[in-house]
User: What shape does this take?
Amino acid sequence: MDRDQSWQAIEQARNTLADLLSSLTEAEWDHPSLCTGWRVRDVAAHVAMAPQPPGPLTMLVEAVRARGSFHRLNHDLAVRYADSPGVDLVAELREHASSRRLPPVTNYRNILYDTLVHVQDVAIPLGHEVPMPTAAACAAAERVWTMGWPFWARRRLAGFRLYATDVAWSAGTGSREVHGRIESLLLLLTGRTVILEHLTGNGVAALTDRV
Assistant: This one.
């Protein structure tokens, strides 16, 4: 996928998340997401903040509060934003869905996988099935596989050969094979172990033991 196609997929994913959130009860907004320690509303806030990032001074203050931990910084920013009085995350997601503004030190490839995966972080624990666009999922999986931090996918999955069953995509080396839809493999690459039950192949048992 090229840059424009990626941004179109990001816009679609933001609107998909907004549609899903618009039907939730208050209890569902506070339901745990697939991200440990993150409520559904926190994930929604994180996605909504991407095209409207805080300024440098705010980020510096938050970094000090988080004691230099990027994960804590992300979490605390999202929680505070989610709990802000009067915030309407559904409206913000829709208003900024087509925005191409980027937070510092990232790029559209990262925003693509981040947005696609976070839709599933909300949908799966709430029992909603939200299909992921195949081409976008393939581009996102390739990005996550070829990057290092924060997922270190090639290191974590060393010795396994991954095969998508719905698109021409594979990665890794070894005799232990893992098969699944590209969206399932993307979730695996980003550490969502809940997806293991949807994978097949002679390497699934060993993979389950490892992760």
Observations:
- The mean pLDDT is 93.
- Residues 3-123 form one domain.
- The longest helix spans residues 3-21.
